[in-house]
Amino acid sequence: MAEALTAETILGTTEDVLRRFGPAKATVVDVARALGVSHGSVYRHFPTKAALREAVTQRWLDRAHAGLAELVTAPTDPPQRLRDWLAALFEAKRRKALGDPELFATFQVLVAENSRVVAAHVAAMVDDLTEIVRSGVDSGHFTTADPRRTARAVFHATARYHDPAHASDWSGPDADDAFDAVVSLLVAGLRTGA
Amino acid sequence: MAEALTAETILGTTEDVLRRFGPAKATVVDVARALGVSHGSVYRHFPTKAALREAVTQRWLDRAHAGLAELVTAPTDPPQRLRDWLAALFEAKRRKALGDPELFATFQVLVAENSRVVAAHVAAMVDDLTEIVRSGVDSGHFTTADPRRTARAVFHATARYHDPAHASDWSGPDADDAFDAVVSLLVAGLRTGA
């Protein structure tokens, strides 16, 4: 068993254990027991409980990002690409929040204690947006003197549709129309230039 | 003493009592004791504890709004008026959050339990923004087919700068520049039309 033990297997089981015991109670020993290995085997991959929690948080955040990266270079024009990317992010976050609220709540605790991982996740999002804004400037669709600053503004202006603090607003009947109104305003602003 | 007892006096004292005892422990009896009156005197103005808590929440939210209403009809052009209104809201919220973090945290509890009052507060904000957007359409500065929908989008797109869930982002060294980038993008979007 121990020879098949990969970091990915440990992380999958850690998520199960977190779901079952909650973020306050879950321990490395619980994870090892669920895997049928010694806790030393787990520590060989993740030297501390904090390292394990950080890695499982990163995996959770990366999953929301999966699929977004390829939208950055989709063959549509940059305004449409921006819309699609923002809609995919909103959809991914909403699916996680509404599809499995208990696991979502669990990960809010982990996210709060792993600010470094969150900062890297946000930076990756802003990198994606910067690339879309840049390609819009190149194609003549967008105007901005500072694509990164503008991309960050787009990310901040859509916080209501990706920041977990707003999850309770994601299920209302107006959520999609309200999202669309914000994105349309931002795309219009990108066309003129801020 | 009892004859001088106004609703405003009671609400001011309720805020002090909330600050001192915290939102979980503060009672109507505590408020009456602090005022030197019977609790019946308090109940004459506010028939239940819930009514008192609702009223004190409303007063707290109204205070953030004070001063904003007159900016709606300021003699500057609508784009500048929009910037000034949004900056004043951000400043008011930030002052409350950073100037008295304990009272701010207390009111987050009250805000969470008084969703009707919060909804009315948000509606008043969106009304202000709608009026500015409309006057911008009239003056030819802004383009939109639906001023209210667009005003709501402006409110949602600036959530990071007025929603208390984001208070931890308000003190960073980049906060003002990030705010400015968002507002500039929105004003540009309003010029073109979404």
Give the oligomeric state of the chains in this entry, treating copies of one chain as homo and distinct chains as hetero: homodimer
Instruction: Name the CATH superfamily assignment of the largest domain in chain A.
Output: Tetracycline Repressor, domain 2
State Rg of chain A.
19 Å
Biggest sheet of chain A, in brief? none
Number of strands of chain A: 0
Secondary-structure element string of chain A: HHHHHHHHHH
Residue share in β-strands of chain A: under 5%
Apparent shape of chain A: elongated
Judged by helices, strands and strand pairing, the structural class of chain A is mainly alpha
CATH architecture of the largest domain in chain A: Orthogonal Bundle
Indicate the CATH topology of the largest domain in chain A.
Answer: Tetracycline Repressor, domain 2
What is the helix tally of chain A?
Answer: 10
Task: Please write the CATH class name of the largest domain in chain A.
Answer: Mainly Alpha
Portion of residues in helices of chain A?
over 70%
Low-confidence regions of chain A: none
Q: What's the number of domains of chain A? A: 2
How far apart, in Å, are the first and last alpha carbons of chain A? 58 Å
For the largest interface in this structure, which chains are involved and how many residues does each contribute?
Answer: A-B, 28 and 28 residues
Overall pLDDT score of chain A: 93
